[in-house]
Amino acid sequence: MRIKATAILAVLLLAITAQPALATVTFDPATGTGFVGKGDIQIPWGWNNAKLQSAAGSVTFSYVQTDAADYGVTCEWDTVNKIQTIHHAVTNTRSVNDTVAYDLASVTRKNPQGNVTGFKLTGFGALTVTSSGDAVPSVGDGCPNGGDGIVTAVDILSATSRGGLYATSSTAGTGPTLIWAPAIPAQ
């Protein structure tokens, strides 16, 4: 009897933990389009359905992404049949910042009762991209220091990325809330 009860409990536990997530954000950082389910807003802000329905018009979305990388650049040149090699460190940072538009009246997904079930993101406004640091050369380019020689290798020494899609609402009483972040590729 005890084994049977344990087996039933294990099956129930597996069924509960195997359920899909309540809501899923889909977002294309290249276009600013996608979908945010109502649960992705309700859960972090502790809103019930009535609160979401009354405050849906106050929700705004923004996308902020900052990528930074350090590169090792190898340059080579000939001096009297001897190949000289020098290594350069190049750092480059790229930031993207913009609001993500949606039209509450026409593109917010609603059920047959007229309740908001999510937000259809329609794209970026005026995307702002800024870069800082040295330009990253390509193999075959001249050396970064302007001297003789050519770049024979460019290696990423380290890279970081932070940010993502944020939701904000004056009604939530909190600052921007991260609701989607890009997947980190396996190394």
- Shape by Cα distribution: rod-shaped
Q: Return residue spans where pLDDT drops below 50 for at least 5 consecutive residues.
A: 1-22
Radius of gyration over all CA atoms, rounded: 25 Å
**What's the end-to-end separation, in Å?**
48 Å
Tell me the fraction of residues in β-strands, as a range. over 45%
Mean pLDDT, as a whole number? 78
Structure report:
- By secondary structure, the chain is an alpha+beta fold.
- Strands 1, 2, 3, 4, 5, 6, 7, 8 and 9 form a nine-stranded antiparallel β-sheet that branches.
- The chain has one domain.
- It has helices at 2-17, 38-45, 49-55, 104-107; strands at 26-28, 33-37, 59-79, 82-101, 108-110, 116-124, 128-133, 150-169, 177-180.
- The protein has four helices and nine strands.
- It is rod-shaped, with a radius of gyration of 25 Å.
Secondary structure: elements and pairs:
Blueprint: H1 2-17, E1 26-28, E2 33-37, H2 38-45, H3 49-55, E3 59-79, E4 82-101, H4 104-107, E5 108-110, E6 116-124, E7 128-133, E8 150-169, E9 177-180
Antiparallel strand pairs: 1-2, 2-6, 3-4, 3-8, 4-6, 4-7, 5-6, 8-9
